[in-house]
């Protein structure tokens, strides 16, 4: 099915030969059916996703707000049409890559869910000296004590955020006044530029004050915190990477003090009560999170490589620049 409205979005779809139940196609789609003995449905699907058909559809689209093509335009699109067996082999190769990409994306989503659940446990139960999560309070009540925030591990303390991490407003600087250099200028959304001067020695932690709230950034080098940000001026001896975890958990965006442009007032959040583990336990929490982050990052890199490979193969196989005829010959020999 070819999405005819805004074809640049490539909102196309593939319907298998035996779909579950009856289907009705919207008028925003052009239905493409393979011809028996001539074309393969999956190959046609990959072809309409390819760059060649994309370019033709964009050129044929009419309209400014809702550019669209019609059925006649779709029928006139030109594609590379190798023999049917070669089409099937190309479709098989690309379909296999799509399956790997979907599985990797599902694993990344699962790891993110695990991380969110783990962070909740780490900030309420913590890690014992053996590197294991403590049992929950109902399973081991002797390991916990009462606090204004509920039951917390006995070695933890309840303090205000200001007593734990002292936030300070950043320093104003315009793009015009900057000179290219090595020191990152960190705004509410992260690093936006590099300047030849810094205001804070790294490593440090920055969170959004104005514009984009709730994002926390760990900066390894010396840096210039922008006026749209808040930076941690005093960590009070706490692990700096644990500070990122703690600030993220507070969802500071909910304390927006403005009406039009989101703004965070540090005086509103400094009185917040937080439960804080000892520094040695903070270190263990940071290490556990880092291991999970590394696993997720590895899968993201793998997924990006697969997407890059898929794009390259589509460009080669769907244009005939690279043929799979040798693979077909090998398959025939194996059958014999």
TrEMBL record:
<dbReference type="Pfam" id="PF01420">
    <property type="entry name" value="Methylase_S"/>
</dbReference>
<dbReference type="InterPro" id="IPR052021">
    <property type="entry name" value="Type-I_RS_S_subunit"/>
</dbReference>
<keyword id="KW-0238">DNA-binding</keyword>
<dbReference type="GO" id="GO:0003677">
    <property type="term" value="F:DNA binding"/>
</dbReference>
<feature type="domain" description="Type I restriction modification DNA specificity">
    <location>
        <begin position="22"/>
        <end position="113"/>
    </location>
</feature>
<dbReference type="InterPro" id="IPR044946">
    <property type="entry name" value="Restrct_endonuc_typeI_TRD_sf"/>
</dbReference>
<dbReference type="InterPro" id="IPR000055">
    <property type="entry name" value="Restrct_endonuc_typeI_TRD"/>
</dbReference>
<protein>
    <recommendedName>
        <fullName>Type I restriction modification DNA specificity domain-containing protein</fullName>
    </recommendedName>
</protein>
<keyword id="KW-0680">Restriction system</keyword>
<dbReference type="GO" id="GO:0009307">
    <property type="term" value="P:DNA restriction-modification system"/>
</dbReference>
<comment type="similarity">
    <text>Belongs to the type-I restriction system S methylase family.</text>
</comment>
<feature type="domain" description="Type I restriction modification DNA specificity">
    <location>
        <begin position="153"/>
        <end position="301"/>
    </location>
</feature>
């Amino acid at each position: 099915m070819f999405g005819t409205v805004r074809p640049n979005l490539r909102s196309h779809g593939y319907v298998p030969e035996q779909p579950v139940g009856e289907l009705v196609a919207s008028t925003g789609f052009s239905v493409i059916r393979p011809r028996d003995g001539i074309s393969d449905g999956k190959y046609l699907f990959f072809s309409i996703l390819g760059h060649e058909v994309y370019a033709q559809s964009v050129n044929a689209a009419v309209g400014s707000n809702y550019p669209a093509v019609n059925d006649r335009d779709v029928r006139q699109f030109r594609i590379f049409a190798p023999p049917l067996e070669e089409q099937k082999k190309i479709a098989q190769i690309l379909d296999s890559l799509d399956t790997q990409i979907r599985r990797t994306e599902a694993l990344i989503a699962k790891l993110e869910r695990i991380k969110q659940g783990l962070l909740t446990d780490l900030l309420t139960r913590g890690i014992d000296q053996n590197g294991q999560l403590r049992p929950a309070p109902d399973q081991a009540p002797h390991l916990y004590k009462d606090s204004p925030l509920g039951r917390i591990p006995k070695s933890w303390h309840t303090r205000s955020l200001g007593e734990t991490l002292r936030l300070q407003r950043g320093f104003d600087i315009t793009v015009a006044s900057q000179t290219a250099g090595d020191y990152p200028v960190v705004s509410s959304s992260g690093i936006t530029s590099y300047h030849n001067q810094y205001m804070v020695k790294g490593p440090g932690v920055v969170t959004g004050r104005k514009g984009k709230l709730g994002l926390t950034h760990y900066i390894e080098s010396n840096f210039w915190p922008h006026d749209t940000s808040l930076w941690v001026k005093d960590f009070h001896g706490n692990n700096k990477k644990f500070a990122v975890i703690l600030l993220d958990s507070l969802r500071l965006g909910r304390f927006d003090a403005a009406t039009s442009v989101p703004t965070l007032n540090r005086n509103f959040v400094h009185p917040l009560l937080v439960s804080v583990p000892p520094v040695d336990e903070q270190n263990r929490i940071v290490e556990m999170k880092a291991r999970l982050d590394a696993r997720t990052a590895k899968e993201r890199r793998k997924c990006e490589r697969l997407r890059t490979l898929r794009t390259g193969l589509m460009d080669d196989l769907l244009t005939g620049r690279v043929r799979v005829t040798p693979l077909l010959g090998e398959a025939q020999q194996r059958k014999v």
